[in-house]
Every structure is written in structure tokens, then in C-alpha cells.
Write a structure and sequence with these properties.
212 residues; 10 helices
Amino acid sequence: MVLHEFLLLATAHWLALVSPGPDFLLLLRNALRHGRRNGIGTSLGIACANGVYIVMALAGFSVLQHSPALLLAMKLLAGGYLAYIGWAFIRASRSPQPLAWQHADRGMEAHHGFFQGFAAGFLSGGLNPKNGLFYLGLFTLMVGAATGMEIKMLYGAWMFAAVFVWDAALVLAVSSERVAARIVRYFSRAEWLAGVLLLIAALAIVAATLFA
């Protein structure tokens, strides 16, 4: 029973995890632009933001569902933050600065280090109210009422670890010099396109929030 429940939960979570979204774009861009330490920090920040929502779901209530004003504010903040990082992507794509692995020294990578990446990742994951509703839905629909809290906590710990391990693995893969060298010629155009997509997503969120 528990194994079957866990497999259903883990599969649904995995499918959501591998689907590209704002967190994915931010993660890969930070790893290439600012280096591996920043990318790992971003990975941990995203995982911790997911962890907060997992704890909220485990507590058996949803602040977001029962507080329309808070949900509205979070959607507007999420739209604003997506617009901010989207514009930052577009500006950086026009910059002639080399990527992290091309620097002769590591001064630039140190300037945009682990904690800067962590803050960016935590804001990206934490300001997305869909994360909270997603975890609440997972625990509501896929976890039986008879499942004990200890098992639910293990489920939550697994999902937190899965987010961090998957994101960190992506960072390690794309920040290797061999992979980055193949990406570099397309990176500016990809960064610009990612920025445009984030701006469009931001406008869509704000429009849907204000005119729903």
C-alpha cells in the first residue's frame, strides 16, 4: 500500500520536476553565466522554497487557498519577479561579458557566489503560488487518510531531495567546460529568448490576476 502510494506520488512529482519552467531557466542561466557555485546555490534555494510548501501541505492546510488577498499579492509579486529576471536576462544577453568558465580568474564567479544563487532560487520558487497548490494537491489526492505523519514526512523529504539532486545534476552537467563550450555560440540568443518568455509569462500572470 505504502509502496504503491509512494510510486504514484514520486512519478507525479518527477513529471512536474522535469517540465521546464521559470526555475529551470533561472537555474541553467545562473550556472552558465555565474558559475557552478552560484548554480548549486540556486538549486538549494529552489529546493528550500519547495520544502516550505511541502511543510505547509503536510500541516494539513493551505494559507494560499484560504487567503485570497495573500494569493493575489503572491501572484503579483511572482509576476513582478519574473519580469525582473526576464529583463535581466535580456540585458545580459546583449553584454559581451564571457561566461563563467571563460574567465581567466574566478573573481566574477565569486561576486555572484553561492548565497546570491540561493537567494535568487528561493525567491523564484517561493514566489510561485502554483508550487504550494501543487504540493497540496499531491498530498490531498494521492496520499490516503490512513497514511501516518511519519510516512508523509518521508514523502516530503524525498521530494525535497529530488528537487535538489535533479537541479544540482543539471548544474554540474551544463557547467562542465566541454558542454559549456558547445553551448556558448547559442547562449546569448537563448538567454534573450528565455528573457522574452519570462516577460510574457509575467504579463500573463499579472493580466490573469487583475482581470480574472
